[in-house]
Design brief:
Blueprint (H helix, E strand, L loop, with lengths): L4 H9 L1 E2 L4 E2 L4 E2 L1 H8 L13 H13 L11 H4 L8 H28 L7 H5 L1
Parallel strand pairs: 1-3
Antiparallel strand pairs: 2-3
């Protein structure tokens, strides 16, 4: 599959920022960039993106350090078309990942770092 040169040029002209951005200045948040790619008006609520993914992307966009924010650009085209009514399945997958992968890793890291310190057993209190 070849590289879409139009998309490559657009990627180069857009700088991701916090907030919805200013399209006339080439500054957009990841969701307004997705709206632009979808041919929609300037908005951080593109119609073709899952509400769950949108909420997460907005939170991530606004919380990331500015120097890292540009790393979200490749995800803008990838989240288009996720408005497929499958958010309940996505939530189940996220819960499973949290329970089976993320929390056990945090627990292990915490126990290794805290020994008998004040954080010992924090993960039990969380559960």
């Amino acid at each position: 599959m070849g590289v879409d040169r139009r998309l490559e040029v657009l990627h180069g002209r857009v700088t991701l920022c916090r907030g919805t951005g200013h399209p006339d200045q080439g500054r957009l948040c990841v969701m307004s960039f997705a709206a632009l790619l979808a041919g929609e008006p300037h908005s951080d609520i593109p119609a073709r993106v899952s509400p769950l993914i949108r909420d997460y992307a907005v939170m991530l966009n606004d919380a990331m350090p500015l120097e890292e924010l540009q790393r979200l650009k490749p995800f803008a085209p990838r989240i288009l078309g996720t408005d497929d009514g499958r958010d309940s399945e996505r939530v189940a997958l996220l819960r499973s990942a949290l329970e089976l992968e993320i929390l056990p890793r945090l627990r292990s890291d915490s126990e290794a770092a805290s020994g008998d310190g004040p954080l010992k057993g924090w993960w039990r209190r969380l559960a």
